[in-house]
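Why show two proteins at once? Because comparison is the fastest way to build intuition. When a single record is shown, students tend to memorize it. When two are placed side by side, the eye starts asking what differs. So, the first record is below.
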Amino acid sequence: MTEPLPRISLELRSLVTEEGTLELSLAEVPLPSLGPAEVVVRIEAAPINPSDLGLLLAGADVASGVVDGTSERPILTAPLADGALRSLAARVGKSLPVGNEGAGTVVAAGSSPEAQSLLGRVVAIAAGGMYSQYRTVSAASCLLLPSGTTPKDGASSFVNPLTALGMLETMRREGHKGLVHTAGASNLGQMLVKLCLEEEVPLVAIVRKPEQVQLLKSIGAVHVCDSSSPTFMADLIDALSATSATIAFDAVGGGKLVNYILTAMEAAANASPREYSRYGSMVHKQVYIYGGLDPSPTTLTRTFGFAWGVGGWLLTPFLGTIEPDTVNLMRSRVAGGLTTTFASSYTRAVSLISLLDPSALAAATKQATGEKYLVVPNTDKS
């Protein structure tokens, strides 16, 4: 080590109580002893991703929350939905750190050459607890960012970029020729447009507003379907016929969108005259749900034959099924494209303290296209 370790880190904690409330607070946490192959990272930027919200909010109505405590150590308490404690029983009474990924500067390093090589460098990590001033992590878990890359540029180096790459890898491994993506105008959706253009993979992006169609067209998207349009199904069938896309990744989850996609895939598969089958097309159609923008039940009306599947898809379990060398190649590709293919944009940067204001927290965690917030743990400015 070449400089003294910080002794205390301030971090955001989420607690579900037996009374059926959510408590968000700031905890002063002693940093653990630094091992030879570990580093201490000063976290300077951490995104709020949809995947953070379950742990952070536990489904609570944060807009109805009240603030207690002091100005320096506020405590936000918000009510949980009726019956929520049944599904949250495993975390009742446990104060949990929050934030999947982030980036910052290595301010202390263990004695190993690998750790020492990172001292003073900007790295990205996905080790949990990123809404924290400092994190002690293994040097091997750090993604070294190219010289000149800022923590803001590298804050979203894992979840969205690796999800985009993972979707393409899944498509190829399952033998599909093109893919469909909902929430097409999100940060992830825009990354996927750029990535598919680079990889020459046919992509059908589904959005919810006419202006989002123009946004994606402006960055090169070819097939963009607006689900609010009266011609949505016809447009979707045409796009699927043109691309032969038979796998979809859906961020919405609830409602009828999955059903519409499968129905349109079946119509596209039957577009060319062929022998009639009571069982429908034998072209396999697959939809993976990876998000829950709509918490209502997923409705299927079985208008798409028998060669189909609907399942769940999550990044971390998927990465665990593929070869480590493939994961490392994906990480390296992300590091080289953080200001181009995998660039993220943010609506606003917020401090840890400002997240404990109910209105600020509600705005920062609203799942809306083009409104992504960045947490900056080492500042008091909102």
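Second record. Ask yourself what differs from the first in the token line.
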Amino acid sequence: MRLFRLSVLLILLSTWLSGPFLIAQAQTATGNAEIDALNQQIEAKKKRIAELEKSMAEYNDKISKTRLEAVSLKNQMALLDNHITQVELDVETTQEKLDTVKLQIQGLGISITDKNKVIERQKSILAELLRNLQQEQDKSYVEIMAGYDNFSDFFNRVQYLNKVQQDLGLSAKNLRVAKEDLEDKQQQAEERERAYNELQAELKDKKADLEGQSQNKQNLLVQTQSSEL
């Protein structure tokens, strides 16, 4: 009789169990839309980075060619101009990379929040299932049967027992997978944070380099003007 009651309980909970999980799935829709928007921005940033890196390579060629030319004030000025432009492009590239990593961190934050909601909802489902199980174990056979209009409805629901048991297993699996995915997202977020900090330090150095190159150009301009007097 105890096993029979358990079977009946699992059937009674089949509809209830599937409903909340769909709600948990629906809660991810907004997060997914935000992530899609962030991914579009990230792709645009990556495209811009590729363009900037191509321009930097072109200026690197110009610098190499200029160095092969005869040394003169004009040559040195052209070399400095190319250096400055290259460093400016490098600064912009690093800034774009920073923005890209920041967008990735935002996306991971949304995913982590979303996964936490799914996990909490699945925990709630399983906890409620256990409470209902305890309550149903205390019910009499007559009370269980009273929930159906006729015997036909009762036995039709019994046929779904195996499916309900599979759904319960799937719910537990979904909870485990969600936790594993959460841990993965958290690790990715930590890695992106480290990359962001490294890029910030790199950007600071490149801005200092740009300032130095600009000062060199100013000094060369002063020398050029003095030689023309």
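One difference worth noting in the second protein: Residues 161-228 form the longest helix (68 residues).
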